[in-house]
Design goal:
2 copies of one chain form a homodimer. Chain A is built from 9 helices and no strands. Chain A is mainly alpha-helical. Chain B binds a DNA duplex through helix 3. Chains A, B: This is TetR family transcriptional regulator.
Chain lengths: ~200, ~200
DNA sequence: GGAAGCGGAGAACGAACGTTCTCACAGTTC
DNA sequence: GAACTGTGAGAACGTTCGTTCTCCGCTTCC
């Protein structure tokens, strides 16, 4: 009984490790080649995990896709929080574009997986569309918090979000990380304009 | 002989009309559902053109995809030129974002087809990647011309391009046209900042 | 009037997909 | 040692894809 409990525990731990390995591999393949271009048999070949075991760990390909996107979402949040280190200031807002620059310069960069997945499956797979919308919505909401903390008017937040989105697609298609630096320069101007007190703004004259 | 030449001419005209109809239908379906989600048989059913005739007019599905993208490229250029009416001024640059707003508010808006196609096929179909890159490159080059005509420094052009790209993906995912107006506001600030003479800029102090 | 060639409908092909099943074999339990 | 359980490799299933082929009715020309 003690041994069986022990065995069950290690099996569960093995399952978790296997699931993680599968999700990492799936993330890499889906991101690099596109979701529809990677079949379950390719995933089996790359992970060395048999189809039977794959389907014991995940009920369907779509569930793998969803978990990959959710893991990316958590990774993105970590990167953003590392960049802004908790609170919103002018420099922390700009640090987001430095984070983007580092990402774009990686040689396996192929754009934002959420944007790519939305273009590929957004119209046919409602769950994917929902995850993408939620991801982008949460980023915009976090930006709004940071902008408020920095003392800038709320209208700045969507502007910064649009710059980040545009930088991601531009860098992906152009194949260079230049767009991150251009977006950063634009963000600097927008932030400074938003922080500069205006006649009709809520700041002091 | 005269009749045969006549017949050949009408046949050629019919072929051209049929090709146009097929390309319009393919554009609508690919744009709405994604390219990989629309098979040749769906295209046959929607156009009423038999598979045999489809393959007589186009050598392959990929060639249809390419022609659809090239037609979209020409349509985009027309929309841009209508908005800027030839020359670049502050107002003409902003008119691009008004054009985007009108586009986003159409109920069949589903983002930029070039971005969507790139996410879906960019990694597996080199010709598609090439067309998308060329399309975005030409838009950036045209923006650079307009910015120069408006008397603003060259660094403004990629910033405006990034705003336009970001607005397209943001609007597509959010499902609202709001991003166009937000991008327009940001563009206004960036253009004014670029046109305002600075100490180290090339304008007068 | 009959032969010849066309174009349309849709079957057929080979490949790939997501998913399930078979089968042989290992380890565990009485 | 025999029955049971779970696993891996991979065949198999049903569907869908892009593309080609077959058949058949219609027109056209001698």
């Amino acid at each position: 009984m003690s041994e069986t409990r022990q065995r069950a525990a290690t099996e569960r731990a093995d399952d978790a490790a296997l699931r993680a390995k599968i999700l990492e591999t799936a993330d890499r393949l889906y991101y690099t080649l596109g979701i529809q271009a990677v079949g379950m048999d390719t995933l089996r070949a790359e992970t060395g995990v048999s189809l039977k075991r794959l389907y014991a760990l995940f009920p369907s390909k779509e569930s793998i896709v969803e978990e990959v996107l959710l893991a990316r979402h958590r990774m993105w949040n970590t990167l953003v929080e590392d960049a802004v280190t908790g609170t919103g200031t002018r420099e922390h807002l700009l640090a987001i574009y430095d984070m983007l620059a580092r990402w774009f310069d990686q040689d396996d960069f192929r754009g934002c997986m959420f944007i790519n997945s939305f273009g590929e499956l957004g119209a046919t797979t409602p769950r994917v569309a929902e995850i993408v919308r939620s991801h982008k919505g949460q980023f915009q909401a976090r930006l709004a918090e940071l902008v408020a903390e920095a003392g800038a008017p709320a209208s700045l937040a969507p502007q910064l979000a649009i710059l980040a989105e545009g930088a991601q697609t531009t860098a992906a298609i152009a194949g260079t990380g230049e767009a991150a630096r251009q977006a950063r320069e634009a963000a600097e101007i927008l932030i400074d304009a938003a922080l500069r007190p205006r006649e009709q703004a809520d700041g002091p004259a």
